[in-house]
Every structure is written in C-alpha cells, then in structure tokens.
Amino acid sequence: MLTTLKITTPLEGVLCITLNRPEALNALNTQLLGELADTLSDADCDDTVRAVVITGSAKAFAAGADINEMAERDLVGMLEDPRQHHWATITRFRKPIIAAVNGYALGGGCELAMHADIIIAGENALFGQPEINLGIMPGAGGTQRLLRAVGKSLATQMVLTGEPISARRALEAGLISEITQPELTLERAIDIATRIASKAPLAVRLARESLHKAMDTDLATGLRFERHAFTLLAGTDDRDEGIRAFQEKRPATFQGH
C-alpha cells in the first residue's frame, strides 16, 4: 500500500501521481522514491497508461532530499544508497512524463522535475539546487540535466550559489515550457497528458526516444536514429490508421499496434 503517493486516473490513458509528504514539503526520502520507482515500473508495463503526470502540493512540488535521512548516512552508506537505484528506474521510464510544479522544486525536487519530458509551472514556482549550502552538491542529475536545460552560465550560477530562480526566469531559460496560475497548473498538465495519450503510442515512444537521443549524442548520430525510428513506424497499424483517418477527415483511433 502506497503511503507517500496518491494515485489517480483523471482521464483515459493518463496516470496522475501526487507526492504526498506534506509534513516534509514532499522531501524525497527513500520510501517515496522507492514507491515512485515501483509505480512507474508498473505503469511502464501497463498499456492503458500512455502518459504520466507528477505533481506535489500547492506549497511544494518537492523541497529536496530528506536531510534528516541523509545525515544518518556516512560515506559507505552513500555508496550503498538505495536511492540511486530508484533514480535509475525513474530515468528508464519509457512513457511521457509531465511535471506540474507549484511552490518549491529544490534539490532533488528540481532533479525530479527535470526527469519529466515537459514541465508546467505555477507562477509561484521556484527551481533551485541549494545543495552547496549544506557542503554537498547535486547527486541525481542536477549538474548534468540543468546545464543541458538552461546553459552553462546559469546552471553554474544556480549550483555554486544555491540560489533558486523564479518560474519566469525558468521559462526564459528553457527549463519549463509554460507558466500558469497556480490553481490551474495540474489541470493544464493533465490536458497536455491527455493530448499525448490520444496519439499513436509507438510514434510517441520513438519520437520521445529521438528527442532524448539528441541530448546525449552528436547531430549525425541523432539524425540516423531519427530516420531509423521514422522508417520503423511505416510498418505499424497505427501509421495506416492515421493516414486513413486523415484522408477520410475523421479522428484517428490508435491501438498501439
């Protein structure tokens, strides 16, 4: 039974995961990360789930790692930290994730948001990597994903000063895709997830993989991967359905075949 997450299915094809540690501003302790990893693993194998929304509370998406828990681990404890395996599971998730962020997205919370494919933020959102203030540094992708998202200068400033940026600055820098009123953030994220869920699952998967490939390879390799994926889709039933629906001027019904 999940105790740190709330799971709902607001619309067909969409799974909504709400981080639920309000007493700790949704700090990402081992239990929460484990439950999140397990939930995503199950969703990865569930054909009825086509997109996932991850959100927190009005006050905090996630305010970072659980510092009290971290303080109990020495060097050996950190080397054997089970959280690294949970993060790896989250990273391997193959379906689109939309993060709906209100309030604090700091440290591990910012890193979790950056695991999403799309980030929708409320006007009150704050993004930051404040680990340097504790004599440590980001350890779940904060230096790598942040630099790729906002560029070297801003990423370095955020990591080395520990100072957060506003939703407006995050939008200007390319970290997030939209700003909404805080009370509409989740609604907008679910709307985007629903739109994605209505598309051909195989096309979504390969398009997403191609976008990810662009982040960690050179242009020529990325273009070859894209063309290969494009060609593979020519053999799918959904591609035939999409073309027929266009010709017949009707909505397509995709089955993931």
UniProtKB/TrEMBL annotation:
Q: Name one GO molecular function term.
A: enoyl-CoA hydratase activity
Family membership noted in the UniProt record = Belongs to the enoyl-CoA hydratase/isomerase family.
- Which organism encodes this protein? Halomonas llamarensis
Would you tell me the protein name for this molecule? Answer: 2,3-dehydroadipyl-CoA hydratase
Recorded hits in InterPro entries, A to Z, give:
ClpP/crotonase-like_dom_sf, Enoyl-CoA_hyd/isom_CS, Enoyl-CoA_hydra/iso, Enoyl-CoA_hydra_C
Q: Which UniProt keywords apply?
A: Lyase
Among PANTHER family, the record links this protein to: ENOYL-COA HYDRATASE, MITOCHONDRIAL (PTHR11941:SF54), ENOYL-COA HYDRATASE-RELATED (PTHR11941)
Asked whether the keyword Methyltransferase is assigned, the reply is no
Q: One Pfam annotation, family name? A: ECH_1
SUPFAM superfamilies cross-referenced by the UniProt entry:
ClpP/crotonase (SSF52096)
CDD domains this protein is in? crotonase-like
Listed EC numbers: 4.2.1.17
Q: What class of enzyme is it?
A: lyase
